[in-house]
């Protein structure tokens, strides 16, 4: 009898939690990364798994920012030096000893591409409650650049849309 009552109570609490989640407004959340000192935000839905920088096989006749391919959990991913792609610094070849904090972010397969972004530092997670949207400055930005956000330390973060990034003409043009 006690087990039955405990089970009913558990089911009741779970139903209440599910109901609360359904009625709450969805909150934006991002993975914060740094590329050449610039703060970037990638929506968690588009971000996949983070990996240490391991063996990256170079691919001949590709753009300098296309570092090569890497085997990440049994899947072959193209690796893009994201800071170099964005023009924030010259490319950093995989053989040149990448800094210890550097990581690979494999984008979520739902964005339609098996690509990993090489970035310098993971800066954690951010939510909409931690950030304030910056007014539009009307500067020309690529189609994958979303709004800019400011945190409580007055640091500006640029939102990146992974689905738009993998469809961008320059991003798709890896061949020289």
From TrEMBL:
SUPFAM superfamilies: CheW-like
InterPro entries in the record: CheW-like_dom_sf (IPR036061), CheW-lke_dom (IPR002545)
Any one GO biological process: signal transduction
PROSITE patterns referenced in this protein's UniProt entry, alphabetically: CHEW
Domain CheW-like: 27-171
Pfam families: CheW
Protein's recorded name: Twitching motility signal transduction protein PilI
Species annotation: Rubrivivax gelatinosus (strain NBRC 100245 / IL144)
Taxonomic classification: Bacteria, Pseudomonadati, Pseudomonadota, Betaproteobacteria, Burkholderiales
Gene this protein is translated from: pilI
């Amino acid at each position: 009898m006690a087990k039955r009552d405990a089970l009913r109570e558990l089911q009741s609490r779970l139903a209440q939690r599910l109901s609360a989640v359904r009625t709450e407004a969805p909150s934006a959340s991002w993975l914060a990364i740094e590329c050449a000192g610039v703060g970037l935000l990638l929506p968690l839905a588009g971000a996949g798994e983070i990996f240490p920088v391991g063996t990256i096989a170079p691919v001949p006749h590709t753009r300098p920012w296309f570092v090569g391919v890497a085997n990440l959990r049994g899947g072959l991913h193209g690796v893009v030096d994201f800071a170099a792609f964005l023009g924030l610094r010259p490319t950093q070849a995989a053989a040149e000893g990448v800094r210890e904090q550097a990581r690979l972010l494999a984008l979520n397969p739902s964005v339609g591409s098996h690509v990993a972004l090489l970035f310098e530092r993971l800066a954690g997670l951010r939510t909409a409650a931690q950030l304030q949207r910056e007014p539009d400055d009307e500067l020309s930005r690529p189609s994958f650049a979303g709004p800019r956000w400011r945190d409580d330390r007055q640091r500006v973060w640029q939102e990146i849309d992974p689905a738009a990034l993998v469809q961008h003409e320059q991003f798709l043009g890896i061949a020289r």
